[in-house]
Q: What sequence folds into this?
DNA sequence: CCACCAAGACGAGACGAACCGTCTTGACAA
DNA sequence: TTGTCAAGACGGTTCGTCTCGTCTTGGTGG
């Protein structure tokens, strides 16, 4: 019987120059025109690249953007982790305030929102989005909460996974829905309320 | 100087028959083909209506869907409110379990997800989405929490607005990101953790 | 009370523009 | 020699606007 294998391109012969130009062009364009008006044709034109070169290596414009964004964020965050001064409330407030500021920066906002939106619509992309961008973020929170457990500031039986969802879920909800401002005030109140749920049982 | 007013259509002469047919057709089609493949042309064809009739009354396909969904949900939910048996933990678990089931139903999921996605991408639509669909839902939670305050089960100084965000944010995050299953188990653990944060201070 | 009429929404679909994703060409690099 | 590359032609969709002729409706004059 005839093989139905789709001929996969030869990765070893891929042009690094074109790859970089494509990722760069998509980040620029998504900031300029927004995600819905972002077009494969425009990316190719801006990058000085044939359309086929994009279609050969990526399944969708969202996938291009995910690669582009991952490249930027890689190693920049997540490396340092969350500071541990011994005061978990202060540490969490510091990080959540910084996150609030980051999400108020348009240069970060536009592509990240585009990815979040595309992920909500496309289950396949969502798996990649969560695994490559969200999970690493969760891990640093879990690490800090675990340290808090060992310091006796946090219930040792707490489900740390669920705890990060309680801490970050309301934050993401506000941001995605634009149902409220991402102020330092909000970050502080959220951390305070979450820590009341995380505290060791009396 | 010449007026630049866009001629607004005459509402009093609007065809109720066509309006209903359009809303009905969009709900049917979004379930059949999904939101991204939902097309104004297809809605018009299914509804037996000219395209112009849709463009005349709605700014986007998302706006059509929001009207269609609002019409269905109107008065169906939100009327009853959250049961008050005196046991706030049990009551919240009941409602959140029911919500989890609702979000697992494809007939509800498809159009609602479409609206959530479109809202995340479009600030103007988001304002309508939050106000017409999400706010009414929040209000019934706030009412039940307020009753809990009066019953002495909940901290009287609690910010009830923030409380609903803590309760529902993690739920929405899981659902939108598909970062975990919306089980009864999850609903119960979430309510339990939230109530620890809501409890009166010792 | 009713016949008439002008205004405007209606169904249908033609129209050009934008993008889609595929395919072809000739250059070039491994 | 083989396969990617830039460039762009190609047919197919859907867009949003527009132009028809029809139908509905509210106001007017007999």
A:
């Amino acid at each position: 019987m005839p093989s139905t294998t789709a001929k996969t391109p030869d990765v070893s012969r891929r042009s690094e120059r074109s790859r970089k130009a494509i990722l760069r062009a998509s980040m620029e364009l998504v900031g300029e025109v927004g995600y819905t008006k972002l077009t494969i044709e425009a990316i190719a034109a801006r990058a000085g690249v044939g359309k086929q070169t994009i279609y050969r290596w990526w399944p969708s414009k969202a996938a291009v953007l995910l690669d582009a964004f991952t490249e930027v964020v890689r190693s920049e965050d997540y490396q340092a982790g969350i500071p541990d001064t011994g005061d978990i409330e202060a540490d969490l407030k510091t990080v959540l305030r910084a996150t609030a500021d980051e999400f108020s920066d348009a240069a970060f906002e536009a592509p990240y929102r585009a990815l979040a939106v595309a992920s909500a619509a496309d289950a396949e992309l969502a798996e990649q989005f969560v695994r490559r961008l969200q999970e690493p973020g969760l891990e640093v929170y879990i690490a800090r909460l675990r340290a808090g457990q060992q310091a006796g500031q946090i219930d040792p039986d707490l489900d740390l996974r669920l705890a990060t969802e309680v801490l970050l879920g309301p934050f993401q909800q506000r941001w995605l829905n634009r149902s409220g401002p991402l102020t330092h005030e909000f970050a502080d109140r959220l951390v305070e309320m979450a820590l009341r749920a995380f505290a060791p049982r009396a």
Observations:
- The mean pLDDT of chain B is 92.
- Residues 9-10, 13-15, 18, 44, 48-53, 56 of chain B lie near DNA strand C (CB under 10 Å from a C1').
